[in-house]
Amino acid sequence: MAKTVAALVVAAGRGARLATPDNKQPKQYRLLAGRPVLTHTLNTLAKHPRISRIVTVIHPGDTNLYRDAIAALPTEHLKKLLPEVPGGDTRQKSVFEGLRALSGKSCDYVLIHDAARPFVTFDIIDSLVHSLESGTEGALAASRIADTLKRSQGNGKPLVTVDRSNLWAAQTPQAFPYRLILDAHEKAASVNRHDFTDDTSLAEWNKMTIQLCESDPGNFKITTMADLNRAERQAKILTMNEQVSAATPLSTLQDIRTGIGYDVHAFDEGEKVVLGGVEIPHTRKLKGHSDADVVLHAITDATLGAIGCGDIGQHFPPSAPQWKEASSDRFQRDAMRRVSDLGGRIAHIDVTIVCEEPKIGPHRDRIRKSIAQICDISEA
Ligand code: CTP
Ligand code: MG
Predict the structure, then answer these.
(1) Side by side, which strands form the sheet with 5-11?
(2) Ligand 1: residues whose CB is within 6 Å?
(3) Which residues lie at CB < 5 A from ion ligand 2?
(4) Dihedrals φ, ψ of 101, to 5°?
(5) pTM (2 decimals)?
(6) Alpha-carbon distance 124 to 114, whole Å?
(7) C-alpha span between 67 and 73 (Å, rounded)
(8) In whole angstroms, what is the distance from residue 9 CA to residue 169 CA?
């Protein structure tokens, strides 16, 4: 049977290194692309199919901020959240509180993650879980060091270049069999060690063997204002590229514009029609200069309309020889490029086909799939 995986998110810190005299709000509640950092972090973890429950450790004074941060999560993600747990005055103590809260929740593995790392990816989670499944006592997301490293020997003394071939920057998540890491934390607390800044250091102290899982430098921790600014740029790009599905809460789409397209084609002599990029054998074809894909033409018109950029006839006139028998997905891809140049993306398409023949029903799913693929959106 597949092992159960829980995530433990530590969010009880105060973010002192980012605080200014005017703004002391902890970094995990600062906004990134319009949503709290913690919302991004929880959203990715909760979306992952292997993670079945999540416990978040918060500062007792942050209950309202926490409630606001989880309010934007879709219901199916909220179902994975266990009640939040009050943290301690060091990260290690906060993790320990979270581990204790998972006791009796039948979890085999736990991924311990900083709330302040909102760019954790499915690839990282998959490789950590895979490492545990192969029998390791701990798995660490870590990135290679890209910069040449220098050791200073003091003023006026020569610099020393450090061999970086075996050096890694430790990140989170850090993943462990639940029982092993709970035991290690209990042992550290019993000898009054509360100063481990991450869980693999504590695990190493407990002689556990940790496997490195190569991660992306993009999974950085927000520590300073420069990190928060970098995160804002990264979040905007990701939000723009993220596929939107029916499950995407509309509240996360900040500027919604709608276009309506309409097209009519007569029949002509032929053997097939093309609808939404799908060829359907028929006793006639649709008359037109291009492949006469009436469905894609209407979608392209709607796409151009949503950004106030004219219509399909204006950009691809029937008089132009280069569009003769052209596949109409080219028109739609051109319209989509115009949308993305303006910082937009397509969230949803609704199409109605009015015709007596051919029968659309048997081809409906293929047409949906083809439109989703051409328009780079999810089918759901
Ligand atoms: N953390 C925690 N409990 C603490 C301290 C830290 O849950 N007592 C969490 C933070 O919320 C953060 C993660 O551990 O998600 C990593 O810690 P760090 O980057 O040091 O965050 P802060 O302690 O909040 O920041 P600073 O050290 O600048 O105050
Ligand atoms: Mg700290």
Answers:
(1) 85-86, 51-58, 5-11, 109-114, 168-177, 139-144, 211-214
(2) 10-17, 26, 28, 57, 87-91, 94, 114-116, 221, 223
(3) 13
(4) -65, -20
(5) 0.69
(6) 14
(7) 11
(8) 20
**What single DSSP character describes residue 19?**
-
Q: For residue 12, which atom of ligand 1 is closest to its CA?
A: 7
Q: What is the pLDDT along the chain (380 residues), one digit of tens a residue?
A: 789 999 999 999 999 999 999 899 999 999 998 889 999 999 999 999 999 999 999 999 999 999 999 998 888 899 999 999 999 999 999 999 999 999 999 899 999 999 999 999 999 999 999 999 999 999 999 999 988 999 999 989 999 999 998 999 999 999 999 999 999 999 999 999 999 999 999 999 999 999 999 998 999 999 999 999 999 988 877 665 555 554 555 555 567 889 999 999 999 999 999 999 999 999 999 999 889 999 999 999 999 999 888 999 888 887 777 778 889 999 999 999 888 777 778 889 999 999 999 999 999 999 999 999 999 888 87
Distance 223 CA to ligand 2 centre (A): 9
User: Which residue out of 17, 62, 91, 202 has the highest number of ligand 1 atoms within 8 Å of its CB and is therefore the one to mutate?
Assistant: 91
Ligand 2 centroid – CA 16 distance (Å): 7
Would you mind telling me the total number of residues written for the chain in this entry?
Answer: 380
Q: How far is the CA of 164 from the centre of ligand 1 (A)?
A: 27
Query: Nearest C-alpha to atom 6 of ligand 1 is from which residue?
Result: 13
On the question of a cis peptide bond just before residue 358, with omega within 30 degrees of 0, the verdict is yes
CA dihedral (364, 368, 373, 375) positive or negative? positive
Distance 13 CA to ligand 2 centre (A): 6
Judged by its nearest atom, the ligand closest to the C-alpha of residue 93 is 1
284 φ/ψ angles, rounded to the nearest 5 degrees? -140, 170
Reduce the DSSP state of residue 265 to 3 states and report it. coil
| CA–CA gap between residue 295 and residue 367 (Å, rounded) | 9
Residues facing 54 on adjacent strands: 7, 81
Partners of 100 in the β-ladder: none
Q: Write down the H helix ranges in the chain.
A: 37-47, 63-71, 75-78, 91-101, 122-133, 178-190, 199-205, 225-241, 294-306, 312-315, 329-341, 364-375
